[in-house]
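We treat protein structure as text, and this decision shapes the records that our systems exchange. Because each token names a local backbone shape, the row as a whole describes the fold. An entry from our holdings is shown next, in its original layout:
>
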Amino acid sequence: MSGALSTTPALGSRYAREFPELAVPWRAQEFPDARLLVLNEPLAAELGWDAAALRDGDGAGVLVGAGLPDAAEPVAQAYAGHQFGAYSPRLGDGRALLLGEVADANGHLRDIHLKGSGPTPFARGGDGLAATGPMLREYIVSEAMHALGVPTTRALAVTATGEDVYRESVLPGAVLTRVASSHLRVGTFQYAAAMGDDDLVRRLVAHALNRHYPDRAAADNPSLALLEAVIDAQAALIAQWMLVGFVHGVMNTDNMTISGETIDYGPCAFMDAFDPASVYSSIDLQGRYAFGRQPLIAEWNLARFAETLLLTLDDDEDRAVELAQEALGRFRGAYNAAWFGGMLRKLGLPASAGAGATEDPVTTALLTDLIGLLHVGRVDYTGFFRQLSAAARGDQAPAREMFSDPDPFDLWAPRWLEHGPDADVMDAVNPVYIPRNHLVEEALDAATGGDLSPVERLVDAVTSPYVQRPGFERYAEPAPEAFGPYRTFCGT
């Protein structure tokens, strides 16, 4: 056993054992020249892994799936999914592996998962590899989301493979080591349901409840309890995306987790100028997953999840459909309440100001009018809310100057100030630093060329997002006009 493995917790294989129908035993491709690029030491500590051991000569091999203990059972997971609305019955981990599960410092099971570790039986003709840039993007953005308090999978490490990856050009290869509460997806249930095995679906339901919603595991109707729990979790998650201006870019059903964590940071981005039609993904040609459509798409995905559970919701088909529809009906209320409450905090207003949630006419009008102002003015979303706290302290100039025509802001601001906004509350929820798109690209370009210092500096900024620090001024600034229209790529 290598030095790195001797100081890391044993990998469990619960998923591989319990769901052989949904897992193909597989091993990662060998990368003898693997070299660690970045290591998330705080996360390693949470998992009980020795960061120093992971940084030694054997550690890089462990992080790409080499030298696993004999008891480990790495698998490629099977799942289906609706991709841009079209159903694919067999997707799965084409370039990924679930190495196993470990218990973190709080006793919660966490998946250890690889991305870019070579082709599997689900590769569908792909090379199974990943380039350094997209893997570092996931590292940067997922850690930023974690720091913002958004439920997310996290990156433990990015490791260079020492091999080239062929895309539009020749790029250096890398493997992402990802950590998640689990990799159960809506697509996992779609695959199981398509097999026509009700018992398999019921076992998945029990597994998901025990792992993610143990307080609901003893419910009289487990499938209904899981459906409601996932709806609530996803409503809260999507509201948080909208509040921080995050655009996922590829909200296929195989990218929606049962745990309510954000997963698969492919063609993602943070919105600069506010525009509900913001699309950054190079493959989203119709704007299906535009920023403003994310709540509707989440609701659509959850309807697909409900369909997988119908035969286990009730023996009577009509009653099962009725239960599913009733559960789905809670999404909009849960989402609206989460978004509305979050917006009140961003504006420094007490919850009492929004009594009756979205039915309160005064605050509803206040928020609606503000969204209109930001849209018409194409104002930098993140910067505006941070500058607005200065207005709460008596200086409206920083926020006012963000509008080319400040007259509408001059009419809106007194209405908001009448509520006595709390600037300290605003500063606690409105970040100074996010992964600005131009800075992400700058850092990834440098890393691809061998210089990791811009990545390290950017991660330092975005993992302390609420505290303004001297020397980090450029990390709070929007992209220069010369940056132009931004497009992101999934990296496959």
Residues 3-180 form one domain.
